[in-house]
Amino acid sequence: MRFAFSRSSLWHGAVLGCFLLPLLSALCADSQRALAASGPFAEFSGNWSGTGTIRQGDNKTERIRCSASYRPRGSSQRDIDLQLRCASDTYNFDLAGEFEANETNQISGRWTERSRSIGGTVIGSVRGDRIQIHVESSAFAADLVMVTRSRRQAVTIDSQGGGQFVKASIALLRR
After folding, report:
1. Number of structural domains, the chain?
2. To pair with 174 at 20 to 30 A between CA atoms, which of 9, 138, 150, 166?
3. HSE on the CB side for 131, CA within 13 Å?
4. pTM across the whole model
């Protein structure tokens, strides 16, 4: 099968392409700007609960139950207050934090672990539905990864310091 193109049809195609390509590019850029304007915490707001596992330094793994509450500050969905409480038979934590993300989705903030009366700084970044943060104080550090898709959130925590080594994997559902 052969296709024949006339000079006129090629010229019309080129002219049409010159108008369509910028229009499509503008529409894609607008949708990306709208997504960025919604903020990285757009899917977080509300109350969540779930279960997971926690492994301490002795390599003993336990089931853990958790509840989380996320409250946006302002209307940009770039600032959020969080509270994450988890408990197993032998371990618990009560984490509160204030996070903010700038226009390039770099996260900063403060955190407090209430049951141990420690707190510190938060730094991190957002890439798509994945938030990766590092929390630190003078005696403690932890890396958290949060992947949020609609009503589901997976949280992994890898912490050390203060004489403890803890790894947790938690699956939360928004209520």
Report:
1. 2
2. 166
3. 27
4. 0.75
Query: Same domain for 5 and 65?
Result: no
Which tokens go with 15?
């002219």
**Tokens, residue 142:** 């932890």
Residue 30 shares a structural domain with residue 86: no
Cα separation, 136 vs 127, whole angstroms: 21
Residue 100 and residue 123: Cα distance in Å, rounded?
10
Torsion sign across C-alpha atoms 43, 103, 136, 116: negative
Single-letter amino acid code for the residue at 6? S
Domain around 20: 1-38
CATH value at residue 77? 2.40.128.20
Both 21 and 77 in one domain: the answer is no
